[in-house]
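Please decode residue identities from the backbone states below.
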């Protein structure tokens, strides 16, 4: 099964590359075939996930996903998606638990699934390398976290449409720290999250011509 899927991906895309610090697309078409991408501007989607927190169990979290997609590209030219971010606000029992364990800051990394549909063929893409910087934990009020990172650049050989949607899974590795910078008793813990049912996760459709 894995071999068939890899072969199908190679047939559909010329490559997918996740850059360490910036967007990288694989490989561009020749100058004669390439055409500038038409930008659609930022796309923002508010979705809820249910996450399994240590100590307090399952809690719903709202994530504001945003990115800028091109409206169209020429076949053989990269589909570059830029300015990707996920804004998360933690409050209530989650914030109370962080204060109880003595967390002065919180930081972490994340991986998110993105659903990509190319002319009716569904391909799952995992965005690795996402992260959020050390963020102060307030005693009251929401804790706002900004998760950012590189996302794949796709080069599609043939005309058609490529649809992007938020995937069903998001996993974080979270480290709360005390005021002196040392980890709390929780250390670094996994934070698995699943997209709640009944929502529209669609982000954008890019035309390839």
């Amino acid at each position: 099964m894995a071999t068939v899927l890899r072969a199908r991906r190679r047939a559909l895309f010329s490559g997918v590359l996740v850059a360490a610090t910036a967007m990288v697309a694989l490989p561009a078409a020749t100058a004669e075939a390439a055409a500038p991408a038409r930008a659609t501007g930022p796309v923002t989607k508010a979705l809820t996930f249910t996450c399994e927190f240590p100590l307090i169990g399952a809690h719903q979290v709202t994530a504001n996903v945003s990115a800028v997609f091109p409206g169209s590209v020429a076949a053989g030219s990269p589909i570059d998606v830029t300015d990707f971010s996920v804004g998360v606000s933690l409050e209530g029992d989650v914030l109370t638990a962080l204060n109880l364990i003595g967390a002065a800051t919180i930081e972490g990394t994340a991986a998110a699934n993105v659903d990509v549909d190319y002319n009716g063929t569904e391909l799952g893409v995992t965005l690795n390398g996402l992260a959020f910087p050390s963020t102060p934990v307030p005693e009251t009020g929401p804790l706002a976290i900004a998760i950012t990172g590189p996302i794949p650049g796709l080069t599609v050989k043939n005309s058609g449409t490529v649809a992007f949607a938020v995937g069903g899974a998001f996993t974080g590795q979270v480290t709360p720290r005390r005021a002196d910078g040392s980890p709390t008793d929780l250390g670094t813990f996994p934070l698995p999250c699943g997209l709640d049912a009944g929502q529209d996760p669609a982000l954008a459709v890019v035309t390839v011509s």
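Observation: The longest strand covers residues 160-177.
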